[in-house]
Amino acid sequence: MSPVNVQPIDEVKDPVQRENTELNSPQTRLIIGGLVVGAILFIYLLATQAITQPILLVIGLLLGYTLFHARFGFTSAFRRLMSVGNGQALRSHMLMLAVAVTLFAPILAFGYSFFGGGVSGYVSPVGVSLVVGAFIFGIGMQLGGGCASGTLYAVGGGRTVMFITLLFFIVGATIGAYHLPFWTEEMPAFEPISLATSTGLGYGGAWAISILLFGIITWITLAVEKKKRPPRMAPKPSANGWKRIFRGSWPLFAAAIALAVLNAVTLMTRGTPWGVTSAFALWGSKIATFFGIDVASWGYWQGASAQALQSSIFADSTTVLNFGVILGAFLASAAGGLFKFTKINLKNVAASIIGGLLMGYGARLAFGCNIGAYFGGIASFSLHGYVWGILALAGTFLALYLRPLFGLSVPKSKDSFC
To answer: In 119, 128, 256, 386, which residue has its Cα 20 to 30 A from 341's Cα atom?
Structure first.
């Protein structure tokens, strides 16, 4: 028996999720305004920061544009699989990861980078901190209505309740930063395990093992679908030919490839893969400092990270990427005529508060979110990325029982927001 009542497609109430069957007219003034803001920010970064920062702003813009146009989901992909057995979106994750490891392998093996610095992937320990963090993140993203990247691009698309999720995501990340030394120093954990460097397989062998694992996961989703026969994802309106780049929905497979390529470009630009939530901890810590809290004494802000706390947020590459994602999603939504602030109620506000807190706290404990730990970790051949995915799925399953308490449903196929 399904843990929740599955809501039919035609009863989905969220006006952002419930799109028209025909394309809307572009919101020209919003597009112009977004381009002006983007240009001003690009020029400011070019004038005041390292050359990588304006480049990362453009990369972030492209990431946000891609996420919104394809409604590329992490939260919804996990929820569809766990609730009704639809693995279509999760298979797009496997394609994304397959392309990513194919690109990451030579970059990490030979240290390729655009600006001469070193490159390193996200390889983190597997322990209590990861297990607890990923599990509560899985719960949080199902209550909060979006993962880390999904929160950013939903904000860019005007989904009002996601502003609340983002605010409490920042609060949770800041509390998680304060508590992190306890979880990493007092709780047991294994050393970081890389399929490439910890096993003797090398990047070639690790790539082959990764592709095999993605194939197995794909086969499992197909077997589950064959048994459960879930409904397919509903098609979304789109333009024809080259106009589809700017108007209407993109295929999931196209977005999967684009996201993998952009993550590899991010790696070669700043030396590390795409991430999201470290910036939330930074923003929250700076706000806490403004109110007189001695954030600089926290263990999280010791060593190399101390400089970030003293510098402008525009010097932080993850912050710049996040701003780019929001701006890119805004432009994509305006191009599709979809930008519109949505209604909120007390129940979904409560869910957003709890979900945001759990995601922020969980992301710090788990060394990242669906982007930094799951996408970036697996692309970097780290075992912790796979563990993160399994525990986030477990958290998702529990959250299916919690969502109805907040008036949240589990639509059959059209809940395509991440």
So the answer is: 256
